[in-house]
Amino acid sequence: MSTPYDPARLRAERFARLANETLRPVGAAGDGGSWGAFQQIFRHRQMLDLLIRRDLKSRYKDSSLGFLWTLIRPLTQLVIYYVVMGQFLGAARGIPDFAIYIFAGLTIYGLFSEVVLGGVNSVVSNSGLVKKIYLPREVFPLASVGAAIFNFGIQLVVLFTATVVLGTVPLHAELLYAIPATLLVLVYGTAFALLLAAVNVYLRDTQYLTEVVMMFLMWASPIVYGWTMVEDILGDGLAMEIYTNNPITLAVLGFHKAFWAAGDASQYPDDLLLRMAVATAIGLVLVYAFHHVFRRLQGNFAQEL
To answer: N or C, which end of the chain is more exposed by having fewer CB within 10 Å?
Structure first.
């Protein structure tokens, strides 16, 4: 004999089953710290891959030239700086193979700039996903890092091709300096992308302030002028040490040492590799600290967006 339909009884049974269910946390709080966050990101690696692909495709979605703009923009910068700074203002007279010198600096700085500027707006621009589904919020700035690495790879090919065309192929052991220089930029870029992405959710002026700071950092790095020019002005004191040990300066110098074959030992500070290693270690500490800040702030992302 069938049991008569009783909505109150069924509702009570459903609530009883729910009460016996084990609650599982879905946020970052109490998820096992940074290692737990890393495990969550790894479990969502396919989503991270999709976000990287989406960022790359959407960037030039309605463009006829598509990814060719990845080459056109840095080449345009190269021509402008080479003509204006190198020829009109005479910077090329003190720096041999000026075109390679500039393009090497622009390539590595472009990676840092793209990581940071892409990361600062990454959470806000994905507000729809943040408010609808759960996934580790770190994947948004990390997707910007992945897209920047792809574009950097294309520009790196162009840089190496330029050295072949100009007959200054860097066939020397110093070419390996490109590896720690790239790592240094990625570490600091990721650290600040995480921090600024979280802060920008609460203070939207952050993205505009970041753009201004990035312009300043470019001119504060030896990209269109020589490191020795700064040394002649600042001397050997504390100010010169601060300037030289700036991680962006170290990364640019590392790329110059790797690809600018016309340079000699006097164009670089002593113990460049050691300085880069120390700066990278400090950067890893910043990644950990800024990720901790990101995790503390991400709890109210959905409400703020």
So the answer is: N
